[in-house]
Description:
The chain is of the alpha/beta class. It folds into two domains: 4-21 and 277-387, no CATH class; 26-258, Spore Coat Polysaccharide Biosynthesis Protein SpsA, Chain A. The protein has 14 helices and 13 strands. It has helices at residues 4-7, 16-24, 54-62, 82-90, 110-121, 140-150, 167-183, 186-190, 209-214, 227-237, 259-276, 282-307, 316-336, 347-365, and strands at residues 41-47, 69-75, 96-100, 126-130, 134-136, 155-159, 161-162, 204-208, 242-246, 251-253, 368-371, 374-378, 384-387. The protein has a seven-stranded mixed sheet with strand order 3-2-1-4-8-6-9, with helices on both faces. The chain has a three-stranded mixed sheet with strand order 5-10-7. A three-stranded antiparallel sheet has the order 11-12-13. The longest helix has 26 residues, at 282-307. It is globular and about 75 Å long. The termini are far apart.
Amino acid sequence: MVSASELLPALPWLVPFAGLLRLANNRPNLSDVTPATGTLVSVVVPARNEAATIETVVTSVLASTYHPLELIVVDDRSTDGTAAIVERLAAADARLRLIAGEPLPEGWYGKPWACAQGYREARGDLLLFTDADTRHEPGLLAGAVGALRTEEAALVTVSPQQRCVTFWERVIMPQIWLLLGIRYHPRRVNRARRERDVIANGQFILVRREDYEAIGTHAAVRHEVAEDLALAQTFFRNGRKLHFAFAERLMETRMYQGLPQLIEGWSKNVYLGGRRSFPHEPVLRALVPALLGAAMLFWLVPPVALVLGGLWPTWVPAAAAATVLSLGFWMLISYGMRIPAWYGLLYPLGATMALYIVGRSTWRGGRRVEWRGRTYREGGDGQVGGPAG
């Protein structure tokens, strides 16, 4: 018979269930906003080697119920068929324009540079920066403009539905998405009193031109890997209001397609983005790798202790209870992300891979950044010294 005292060490793995209440709260939600139209919106899509996804985002934006709008795709010197696809689509819709990207200047990362070029060509008083791996429902833009007006905000950003298709996406993405969801819930971001508590999702950032120009445009964050996070902090620092809302019924994105992109993409973002999230707290900035690693190790302790139970039999009851709690928790997280719940049973594999990514990001991200065929020399804390290849 197992005593209560033997199960007591498993209690910490019961605590995360309290966070599910917070994660389940999907308010504020863009679906609840009265849509608005009338002001020209310039939609800017930075695109580098996006032949697999560019047609989806272009056709979905052009199908918007919002009017008037123009769509500017900045081809960031792609080596695939991105430009040809956009040219074909532009021939059928005068609202779409393709801009050939200029060479990357010293001191810039590729995405901020592409966004800056799109802004230079934009005619609208409202600017939407959105990624090539997104799909917009017809009511998305009208809802976002409605939120911008209702909330009297300078910047509106959203949390879309994250689409996970392959095995590794379904195993790894929940691990990292949970940390972001807990740290940056929209309700918390909208009530933020500190720069460290705001964020913007680079997949969808709607701004008023006058505010965007006042804070320095993307040139102000040209040297940042997590340019969306840095942009939100810049708006906040300059007294501009941000509004963050859920939009899981109006927008879908698939960030990375398969394991190689997952590793490359999160290796680029995790370490440097984590440090950027504590802009004025050097101790916490230094502890970012340890904090991220501890978050992954927390979930690995129960199954490891269970496996080692033969060496220390007194661990077995608590380890088994904590493992069952962990399995149940991650099955619920998977279900909430529209991933088959049974993938939660593989959470130890996901946590192990996420731990590897944290280590890789810490080791490589602070010295060099690789993305979309470019390698950048690092100047520290995410500030780029220029492309190295």
